Model the fold of this input.
Amino acid sequence: MKQFSFSIKTFGCQMNERDSEIMAQLLAEKGYVESMELEDADVVILNTCSIRAKAEQKAMSLLGVLRKVKKRRPGMKICVAGCVAQQEGEELCERMPHVDLVIGTQNIYELADLLEATRGASKVAIGMSDAYEIPAFIPTLPKLISHGELQSPFPARPFRKFLTIMQGCNNYCTYCVVPYTRGREISRKFKDIIEEAHVLVDAGVREITLLGQNVNSYGRTNPVTTDGSGYSFSQLLREVAAIQGLKRLRFTTSNPKDLSLELMRCFNEIEILCPQFHLPVQSGSNAVLSKMNRKYTRELYLQRVAELRSFRPDIALSTDVIVGFPGETDADFEETMELLEHVRFHSSFSFKYSDRPGTRSADFDDKVDEQVKSERLSRFQKRQDEICLEQNSLYVGKCLPVMIEKVTQDNMVGRTETNHIVHIEEKIECFPGDIVNVTIYHAGQHSLNGRIDFTSTTGLSS
Ligand code: 5AD
Ligand code: SF4
Done:
């Protein structure tokens, strides 16, 4: 029997990365092999993102390239998954006749069967549903499949993994497509998450990142225990952290409005919870926050930042910012700049506002001029770059535990607990996932340089 090959191209967030990994595993279990090159594969899956106009355009232009490839190789199956697929559904097939399968964000577990349904002359399959519970999906043992490993410079040992704990979002920020592309918020069963975490750690995983659109509301919208009793995200964190052998725990992402004291306290009490927090602010202006339906004020955000830092002074904060939201005045934007000055984020992701189909803000009529948006974005990014450098310089001279990610002939690359990349221009006998103490001697905008501290790296702290 012919062995089919597949290749997955992932756009967008970590949710999508994890979904791609799940799809890769499902196909591998059915005997498919991963192909090095997208264009050589029998099955090509684009796991798309529609959060911003640019993200969607990227997937669309790759679909354009694949149209030509398919002319050369008509047997190739093209599948569109992810948020664009969820939003466009059947219309996508009408616009793009070379697409064989459109699969919604909640249907990835049916991928293999749906692909089978596309076999035979010009059959198109659509997998869309919205009645949803995240299945008790368990990664295969003994070899965990790390999708993308073939193309990745990192070795096969899966030392770091994402673990999805919830899907969807009920917040309805006025600019955001996620409630429409990922559906209503559903928390995964507590027992399934813990089992999956155990499987990962047993297979050698040392760092887990728990994933959800708004992890703070874990357990709030549906029962996550078999007896229907309540369970909070902080309790979940504590249980995962207690797994023997796990060295680092992270999570993403949180809405400032739901950030509880109970969770902030975890940063002080859970030893392996990394001092790193992504807390999207979006804007520093109360008028804009209100039009965005964010349900918090600039003052509340600043209070949360102060509280977080009181529990964990070395915490590295990052954020997301949108500039040029409809109606944003010069004065509103100045408030975002002031907030940046005040909080001094270790890093940030900043974007020009773009209309997304179906969102409320797409209908707002006070849109900001493109030129103004570009100017605001470059001013914000320039100042953030300077602050990154200033913040990173504070690590110089410090000795930090670094988890090794990559070992080459004569150097190594790893990450600090705060998620900073560290380049080490020397090498010792170790594997990805091992933790080495490193003294930082140079800070750049986006990474650090360090030397192994042999006095404290006595054997490996793995
Ligand atoms: N335009 C620009 N940026 C957006 N984001 C979400 N929706 C939009 C939009 N319509 C940004 C937000 C979010 C990040 C993932 O993408 O900052 O936190
Ligand atoms: Fe993009 Fe949001 Fe979908 Fe993630 S959930 S893929 S960021 S649109």
Q: What stands out?
A: The radius of gyration is 23 Å. Confidence is low (pLDDT under 50) at residues 150-155. Residues 246 and 422 are 21 Å apart (CA to CA).
